[in-house]
Amino acid sequence: MMAALKRVNAVMRARMLEFVRDRGSFGWNLLLPVLLVFGLALVFSGEPRPLYKVAVLDDAAQSSARHPFLDTPHIDFYPAESLSGAQADVSRHQTDMLIDLRHSPGRYWINPTSGKGELLERLLLQTDPELQRQTITGKPIRYVDWVVPGVIGMNMMFSAMYGVGYVLVRYRKNGYLKRLHATPLSAFEFLCAQILSRLVIIIVLSAAIFFGTGLVLEFRMEGSHFALLLLSAVGAVSLIALGLIIAARAESEEFAEGLLNAIAWPMMVLSGVWFSLEGSHPALHWAAQLLPLTHILDGARAIMLEGAGLSGILPQLAALAVMSALFLSISAAIFRWERK
Fold first, then answer.
1. Which domains does the chain have, with CATH numbers?
2. Both ends of the chain: CA-CA distance in Å?
3. Which of 5, 169, 9 is nearest to 17 (CA)?
4. CA 226 – CA 230 distance, rounded (Å)
5. pTM of the model
6. Residue 48, phi-psi category: left (phi > 0), alpha (psi -120 to 50), beta (remainder)
7. What is the CB neighbour count within 10 angstroms for residue 51?
8. Of the residues 19, 66, 87, 120, which has the maximum number of CB atoms within 10 A of its CB?
């Protein structure tokens, strides 16, 4: 019994020393939680959000001099870009009320199924009973409608980045890459093959999750399935190529895991998987635009919730294509076949 315990203790100590001496993985295990805590504190800091949102068709959205209702506290008055767009927001419960002050008497729109809209209507009519009432009906965007693209995008991110990261590091450790290096295969060709193989897996699994959960939850899908498929394919390529940058040099699975976590978890927070960054610091919005998952989720929500077509997601497709080319070029340039 004592001999067995000694053997267990010897192996345990050897493994602990191996971990501590791997400065990369040891450092990331200490640093990553600290960065996440400070990052989340920054995301959720700042002034509390207003209780209500009201769109205003008039320059008076920036001034309370033209209408007393616009001086009501705890309401976010913002200028509406178009009548049709603001009406769509009211129908989906994304905006509580729409006011048109361009003519006299003015008009306002509410959704009768919105409790916030009815409360705002009472406050509005106390200041101006002459405004004409208009109603807009429509189903609200449920949280599940909003979060489904985030969950599927998160699953794509983990499958893309970790799927290629661990495999290539293992190939490098067991000498498989060294044997491939003896063939005419170039680094760019090898990485392209890795991207294509992982892409097929991600698209098949994501489609199964999408249609399987859709049958049960019946979440909103206003746009084209083809546009969503194209966005998913281009986005998956960018995520895989990002993972390849980590796998191009890493020699330890633990070190690769630390680097992948350092990228994946902040990206999951900043890209809006579970919650919107609306109202957060502008620097966070700028940083989020540098992440491929942000453009995937923005495009997917535009397609599924707003019915956007290919023309409506061109900015996201262009950003993802540029990122894919950049990440793949970097990974091919720094790729190492053998360990040091």
1. 52-135 (3.40.190.10), 143-334 (no CATH)
2. 41
3. 9
4. 6
5. 0.69
6. beta
7. 13
8. 120
